[in-house]
Structure formats: C-alpha cells, structure tokens
Design goal:
By secondary structure, this protein is of the alpha+beta class. It contains three helices and six strands, in the order E-H-E-E-E-E-H-E-H. Helices cover 35% and strands 28% of the residues. It has a four-stranded antiparallel sheet, with helices on both faces.
Length: 78
C-alpha cells in the first residue's frame, strides 16, 4: 500500500480552478493524495507514482499527518 501525492499544478489548469480528479483523490494544501491498496515493493510504488507525474507522499507537517491519518487510516480501518 502507498499514498501517491501530486502537486495541484500537475492535475489542475486555470490556476487550480479546473482539476481533473475523481472522488478517490483528496486535496490538501495545494496537493492531491491517492491511497493505493495494491501491495507492491517501495521501488515499484515510487515508479508508479513518477509515471503519474507524482511521487510517494512524505509528511511535512503535523497538519498533513493528521489529514492523511483521518483520510486514509481511519476510513480504511473498518
């Protein structure tokens, strides 16, 4: 499992006003996150992210950690 992260400019046009995402992507602080449940090695996960013009998510603040936990861990713990 991994979380794919993309900056808004990689997904959006018109200064972030038009974004091409579906409901499986979640926005936070000008970035979008996608939780991928396929179990694959880290190297393959990163390659998959880079192919989508993103990267593996790395947490850079307590707010971001809280968002990711609430969005992906709590919702998928059922």
């Amino acid at each position: 499992m991994f979380v794919l992260f993309q900056k808004t400019e990689n997904l959006c046009q018109n200064n972030g006003k038009t974004c091409r995402t579906d409901p499986t992507w979640f926005a936070f602080n000008q970035s979008y996150f996608l939780f991928v449940t396929t179990p694959i090695p880290q190297e393959e996960a990163r390659k998959a992210c880079l192919e989508k013009k993103g990267d593996l998510a790395s947490i850079s603040s307590e707010e971001e950690q809280s968002f990711l936990f609430k969005t992906f861990v709590e919702k998928n713990s059922d």
